[in-house]
């Protein structure tokens, strides 16, 4: 049985794959955190209502943004309101 060629050897491909996956993960985190916009646009799972949270608000630190659910970051309250979101009551 012939041994695999050095270019296709699993011992050469695996480290490269690990580096590529790690680089993509780091890029994704940097991209998410590089925005200067700090207003969190959250969609209520219970009601579907679009609510934005500002820094210092009661639920700001607890709120996570899930882009796959349509949630997003805003750069101003005016931007959030014009997109159809309302400010959190607390």
> How far is the N terminus from the C terminus?
70 Å
- Tally of alpha and pi helices: 2
What is the succession of H and E elements? HEEEHE
Strand content: 15-25%
Name the structural class: alpha+beta
What's the number of extended β-strand segments? 4
Mean pLDDT across all residues, rounded?
Answer: 83
- Percent helix, as a range, is 25-40%
**Uncertain spans:** none
Task: Report the radius of gyration as a whole number of Å.
Answer: 21 Å
Identify the overall geometry: elongated
Largest sheet: 4 strands, mixed
Characterize the structure shown.
The chain is an alpha+beta fold and 90 residues long. It has a domain at 39-87. It contains two helices and four strands; from the N terminus they run H-E-E-E-H-E. It has helices at residues 10-33, 77-82, and strands spanning 39-43, 50-53, 72-74, 86-87. It has a four-stranded mixed beta sheet with strand order 3-1-2-4. A hairpin with a 6-residue loop joins strand 1 (39-43) and strand 2 (50-53).
In short:
The protein has 90 residues and is an alpha+beta fold.
List descriptors.
90 residues, alpha+beta, four-stranded mixed sheet
Task: Describe the SSE topology.
Blueprint: H1 10-33, E1 39-43, E2 50-53, E3 72-74, H2 77-82, E4 86-87
Parallel strand pairs: 2-4
Antiparallel strand pairs: 1-2, 1-3
């Amino acid at each position: 049985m012939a041994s695999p060629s050095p270019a296709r050897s699993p011992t050469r491909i695996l480290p490269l794959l690990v580096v590529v996956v790690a680089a993509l993960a780091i890029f994704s985190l940097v991209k998410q955190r590089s925005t200067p916009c700090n207003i969190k646009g959250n969609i209520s799972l219970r009601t579907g209502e679009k609510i934005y949270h500002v820094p210092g608000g009661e639920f700001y630190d607890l709120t996570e943004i899930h882009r796959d659910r349509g949630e997003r970051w805003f750069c101003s309250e005016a931007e959030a309101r014009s997109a159809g979101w309302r400010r959190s009551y607390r």
